[in-house]
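Box S1 | Example of a co-folding query
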Amino acid sequence: MIIAITREVSPAMVNCELTHFSRQPIDIELAYRQHQAYEDALKTLGCQVQRMPADPELPDSVFVEDAAVVLDEVAIITRPGAISRRPETASIASALKPYRQLYTIEAPGTVDGGDVLCIGKNIYVGLSTRSNMHAIEQMQDILSPHGYVVLGIPVSGCLHLKSAVTLLSKETLLINPAWVDATIFGDMQVIEVDPLEPYGANVLWIGEGVIYPANFPRTRQRVEEAVKKLGIGLSMVDVSELQKAEGAVTCCSLILRS
Ligand code: CIR
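Box S1 (continued) | Returned holo structure for citrulline
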């Protein structure tokens, strides 16, 4: 069974953290509907969606990906780089507790789940404004017994590593090469975003299909070709209001196999 943990959009999302974007008006009602459609897409891909209630005190709490790193063996509760986001982790830990042994990143370590890309036993962590070497060292200590190697890698121009690169399949990366160096990932097939769509590298791959935002038509063509070859499905979602909060599709769920 695949479980997708999500969290309802906070009514306070209009006060979200922003790093590379300027603040734009967010239509919260539309954000709720878009988030529900995203959850429907998760269900279509076979996920059992476990939705946590919204927290009016935590503007960015819909972006559950940043609060934990979930692997088959264990889960690591992060210490998010943005101070406003640190209270998000307690309820995520409660949600994950039935499924995984939990470990926790401690100060001075900081890491956002959006910076963590797992490719087999290699865990790549973007050295962004949110994630640091202290956290990477702690992750390596936690994960060594399970055979993982944790590598800090440079990323620039975007919020998180997974703004710049995500997995489209086990062997395929969707990447913006302006923000991260594709050669770091070794022998992977690489699909680049269209240069006019720098934010188009974030795709959510769940086994039999992928979820991709509707507003990157040029890169979408490349994604469509790839999924056709792979024989997997493609669900398009309009997440315009979540994107205004500097979010994307991977960040709105924590995916775990139970
Ligand atoms: C933040 O700046 O933390 C939020 N406004 C957006 C977080 C998006 N998370 C992600 O892509 N993993």
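Residues 16-17, 19, 60, 63, 65-66, 82, 85, 114, 159-160, 245-248, 251 surround citrulline (CB under 6 Å). The chain has one domain: 2-10+18-257.
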